[in-house]
Specification:
Blueprint (H helix, E strand, L loop, with lengths): L14 H14 L6 H6 L3 H16 L5 H15 L2 H12 L6 H9 L11 H16 L4 H36 L14
Helix pairs in contact: 1-3, 4-5, 4-7, 4-8, 7-8
InterPro entries: AhpD-like
Protein name: 4-carboxymuconolactone decarboxylase-like protein
Organism: Periconia macrospinosa
Length: about 190
């Protein structure tokens, strides 16, 4: 980590900052503050906005869990954000329609290529995450594929998820949260 982590039970002198800690802790529940939170809390207002925004993406969209977690994990692979992978790969694997072969394909499928292990919704999201993450500009055919599967609302939610986790991964990698930057894909189980 490039800056020291805030203590796992921070005690800020400002009541407003301590309220922010409470909101982050409430969203995390029994897991307590993650290293990501303890990095963000160097700036409580940033942590507060981040907490609210990520809660919306993670808990208030209508896309299936496997779609959300696949998008997040694909961004993690493309950006080599292994802390993000470590947090989200177990969530993806817990989805009933996902197996270890899906995770293996997610890790090993080169960017902008298809894997035959994914059904159409998951394959469309893989292609979309690749385009958004690596090219930024998404070709019409790639977007229309996502829109055909998920409709307008779902397309917006998939787009917001991929965009959000590109932000998250860039924060994690830039600060080396979780001290994962030295890992390579070969170290992933």
């Amino acid at each position: 980590m490039r800056v020291p982590y805030i203590p796992s039970n921070p005690q800020f002198s400002s009541p407003q900052d301590q309220e922010i800690v409470s909101r982050v802790q409430k969203r995390r529940g029994s897991s307590g503050l993650l290293e990501l939170d303890r990095a963000l809390l160097h700036s409580p207002p940033v942590a507060d906005g981040w907490n609210s925004f990520l809660a919306s993406i993670r808990s208030h969209t209508t896309i299936p869990d496997s779609i959300r977690e696949l998008a997040i994990c694909r961004v993690a692979v493309l950006n080599r954000a292994w802390y993000e992978w470590d947090q989200h790969a177990p969530l993806l694997l817990a989805c009933p329609e996902i197996s270890q072969s899906h995770l293996d394909a997610l890790l090993k499928t080169p960017a902008h290529q298809e894997s035959d292990v994914f059904d159409e919704p998951h394959a469309a999201v893989m292609a979309y995450a690749d385009a958004m993450t690596l090219d930024v500009r998404v070709e019409d055919a790639v977007f229309e594929r996502v829109k055909k599967v998920f409709g307008d609302k779902g397309a917006v939610e998939v787009t917001a998820t991929v965009a959000t986790y590109n932000c998250v991964s860039r924060f994690l990698v830039a600060l080396d949260v979780g001290e994962c930057n030295g890992r390579g894909i070969e170290s992933i189980k």
